[in-house]
Amino acid sequence: MSPAMTAPRDRLIAALDFPDAQAALEEVLRLEGLIQWFKVGLELYLSAGASLVEKLKDQGYSVFLDLKFHDIPNTVAAAVRSVSKLEPEMLTLHASGGPAMMRAAAEAAASLPRTPRLLAVTVLTSMDQAQLTSVGVADAPAGQALKLARLAAECGIGGLVCSPEEAQEMKHALPSSCIVTPGIRPAEAAVGDQKRIATPAAAIHAGADYLVVGRPIFRANDPARAAQAILEEIAGAMGSTK
């Protein structure tokens, strides 16, 4: 773990899964002083564009730009160079895009003045065995995720996105990789469309470096209080793993 990741707020990423910039920035303001990291995903980026990322950066926040690139190698490399002008700290692409695509992305990122941390998305947390089987993947989610994670590491991708169920095995197999886990749900929170989930404490104990949390924070009656409770749970888990 990086020395900079010693505080719980450095490990919690709040997912701004909103349809427009106004709604997202209102929620950012409500969490002022609590959250350092915010995720900007596909829906919000298509609506608000680069200006929203720039506003977050101008306010001193760290940005996880979760666009999950998946295309031919040349297109993905160009996309990495394009969005890296916004200086996101982390940027995602699908490991299932294959080795040529991932190597092209890694080379593009390495050529930039400020290299974003690339994260390879292994198996989406909405996917279970039945979903994988339906698209022709015979392996169980954990097996497929690890296979893709190893491939990503071989291609120079230093970070992974996986469910908390796979985090421990990922950390054991690839100890130098940064592990980011969505599918985080406090014990009392609704599961929603996620299939492979864990509590914040369980994810930290499993080896996750960053936790991505959206609905349990933003759909709570008091988002700031919900975020604080998650931070306290992370703190407790960090203390017990020392």
TrEMBL record:
Gene Ontology terms: cellular component: cytosol
Catalytic activity: orotidine 5'-phosphate + H(+) = UMP + CO2
Active site (catalytic residues): D66, K68, D71
EC number(s) per entry: 4.1.1.23
Ligand binding (substrate): 17, 39, 66-75, 125, 185, 194, 214-215
Signal peptide from the UniProt entry: none
Keyword Lyase assigned: yes
Gene Ontology biological-process annotations: 'de novo' pyrimidine nucleobase biosynthetic process; 'de novo' UMP biosynthetic process
Top-level taxon of the source organism: Bacteria
Enzyme class: lyase
InterPro entries: Aldolase_TIM (IPR013785), OMPdecase (IPR014732), OMPdecase_AS (IPR018089), OMPdecase_bac (IPR047596), OMPdeCOase_dom (IPR001754), RibuloseP-bd_barrel (IPR011060)
UniProt keyword terms in alphabetical order: Decarboxylase, Lyase, Pyrimidine biosynthesis
Pathway: Pyrimidine metabolism; UMP biosynthesis via de novo pathway; UMP from orotate: step 2/2
Single GO molecular function: orotidine-5'-phosphate decarboxylase activity
Sequence ranges assigned to domain Orotidine 5'-phosphate decarboxylase in this UniProt record: 11-230
Family classification: Belongs to the OMP decarboxylase family. Type 1 subfamily.
Quaternary data: Homodimer.
Function statement: Catalyzes the decarboxylation of orotidine 5'-monophosphate (OMP) to uridine 5'-monophosphate (UMP).
UniProt name for this protein: Orotidine 5'-phosphate decarboxylase
